[in-house]
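Lecture 7 notes: from sequence to structure.
We start with the chain below.
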Amino acid sequence: MQQLRNVATLPWIKGLAVMPDVHYGKGATVGSVIAMKDAVCPAAVGVDIGCGMSAVKTSLTADDLPGDLSRLRSKIEQAIPVGRGMHREEVDPKRLYQFPTSGWDDFWSRFDGVADAVKFRRERAALQMGTLGSGNHYCEVCIDGQGSVWLMLHSGSRNIGKELAEHHIGIAQKLPHNQGLVDRDLAVFVADTPQMREYRSDLFWAQEYAKYNRAVMMALFQEVIRKEFRKARVTFDPVISCHHNYVAEERYDGMDLLVTRKGAIRAGSGEFGIIPGSMGTSSFIVKGLGNEAAFNSASHGAGRKMSRSAAKKRFTVRDLEEQTRGVECRKDSGVLDEIPGAYKPIEKVMEQQRDLVEVVAQLKQVVNVKG
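Predicted structure tokens for the same chain:
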């Protein structure tokens, strides 16, 4: 509550919406939507710029899946590097299954315009394109209530987004207009300044990197499924994708605002979104209801109810095994902080946002890949 009050004191703020998955964050809570006029807070956006979800429905059904899913999990892990891993060479999008290559070359040409502090990361950024990362990032094979198989994944802008964010947060905290703030992590950039122009340019580039990162991973994921189920001749519906750590330029009450969704998705009327639970609970494909009181937003997931360190102290590997029963996934101490018990009940979170979204499909994972 104090973090929310702190954000509300910022002189540039025009509105603050709190999602049902809200929890403590850095400066601002995760699970909040911050609408500001002529200003943006880089720490509120966070270090995983553009982090979000992608999901696609396949033509497979639960009956098509083998009883032992360990081989499928292994094939996904071979195709998509996890943790700090990266590809041995750059992924060629022209060789990917149904990958939208338009804009790809233009996107990479704009790397020359990013902050000088990270330009030496060009090769690493290219090799990490199409990789998962660690923490709460994952790839999943899921089944919906009608027995259809879905592919779902969660990731963002990887190391290049992190370094860009940290670079700009450091600059913002040193600016004179930010010296009297109640929390240094609420330092902002303001309109018509070189610092704002540079941040916005890098921010939107990193958000695009995150979008492409998920698109490359999803194409690799689809390729695994096509090869593993050749006889079924798998087809795919259009991919649903959404950011949940990002900034958008939107208009409310006749004002052009910079809307930061820190752990929230856009849920405009009729817009599809993805709200995941945890590695052992349901996730939801939703359609937005366009609630402007919430700045057309909804939660980005279940939300944590305890810190990672607290989860490691409270739960055991046996607890993890029990809470992920029936899911082909890691069941070791390395992912103990991601145990379902560390998250809020996703069904309760969904109940609390019936005025924000309608549920299109409820998914339950059978395979979960984590770094």
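Points to note: The chain has a mean pLDDT of 97. DSSP finds ten helices and 15 strands in the chain.
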